Amino acid sequence: MPESTPFSTLSHLECPKCGAQLDAAVVQGTCSCGSPLLARYDLAAARGMAVAGREATLWRYHEVLPVASPSAVISLGEGMTPLLPLPVHGKRLGVPDLWMKDEGLIPTGSFKARGAAVGVSRAAELGVRGIAMPTNGNAGAAWALYAARAGIRSLIAMPVDAPVITRAECVAAGAELYLVDGLISHAGALIREALKQRPDYQDVSTLKEPYRIEGKKTMGYEIVEQLGMRAPDVILYPTGGGVGLIGIHKALDEMREMGWLNPETRLVAVQAEGCRPIVDAWQAGATESVAPAAPTTVAFGINVPKPLGDFLILRALAETSGTAVAVTDEELLAAQQELARDEGTFVCPEGAACFAALVRLRESGWLNGGERVVVLNTGTGVKYPDTVRVSVPTVPADGALPGPR
Ligand SMILES: *Cc1c(COP(=O)(O)O)cnc(C)c1O
Ligand SMILES: [Zn+2]
């Protein structure tokens, strides 16, 4: 790589809806047309980046990340999570070449850490003094913790029934936290109102700032690097706001444009039956989604009724010959335990949904079993202590255990 290549090759922001180009050197939200903005890089300059010997974090791809100065990087060691082969479970499901990108092993316990690390770093670098967001839990926890590391403030609102541990993470991080007796959309309205009195805070709601996608796209770079610079045939992703799916699609496009490889990876959006706007839109051939009336699922991270980036998710599925699948809560909870028994890995309900979806895709013939398939497990099962119903015998202290079962 030429010595003159900057730490980041970020050039500008672009609107994927109306094509507008915006200055990336100042704080930006969404396009004036309402669309999320995408970061664009000088990929001709970045293409020679030699990542092999670099530290095992997502910052190894710094040329295609937005942070301009190495000293502005806020890190808790995020990224380069394991890509685990799952031979036993793969064989059971009829997909022997099955892999899992395990985001359970990342700071804050969910892959929201990736978006938070890059988003908070860039916001602080551009002079933002506080971040504000509605959340279903994990994103608020991650952004509050990274904000604390950056020395900036955070204002978070989440539904009362969001996972309790994420409350504790926000409070421990010193966030200004509010619980809302409603959905994430209600929390969003409260945050928008509160921001009017906080001019030095940035609205970092999902896809309302451009850099969370950049953090999450590194999953795409890592999967390809960990497979020896080869893209898998299929990636399954538990889709709420769709940031990770849009990000992985963007990463594959960037790697193609840099001439690294020519990926033919099909992307699959997995949702829960209780909240399946993307699946419905995909099946109807629509370009945007419609919010369900009463969204509900135990997989809280994918309980997003109307993603702002729905058209980008649907575009990613269409451009990669992918598909969208919904599974029931019963199916995903069963898959969670089956996987733990087969492979010793306790995934979050969102990740488990993808394993349940594999069964559907194999039954329908969409997968023939010969593909190399990567499932994204987006967080650790340990963050959701109530998803496994536990019924175990208690014995007296001086008692005896029954014979072997
Ligand atoms: C937020 C979240 C998701 C959904 O991520 P998007 O990129 O918004 O679609 C999936 N799983 C977990 C554990 C999450 O916290
Ligand atoms: Zn626009």
From TrEMBL:
It holds the Pfam family PALP. Signal peptide: none annotated. InterPro entries: Ser/Thr_Dehydratase, Ser/Thr_deHydtase_PyrdxlP-BS, TrpB-like_PALP, TrpB-like_PALP_sf. Keywords: Lyase, Pyridoxal phosphate. It comes from the Bacteria. Its cofactor is pyridoxal 5'-phosphate. Residues 74-379 form the Tryptophan synthase beta chain-like PALP domain. This is Threonine synthase. The lineage of its organism: Bacteria, Bacillati, Actinomycetota, Actinomycetes, Pseudonocardiales.
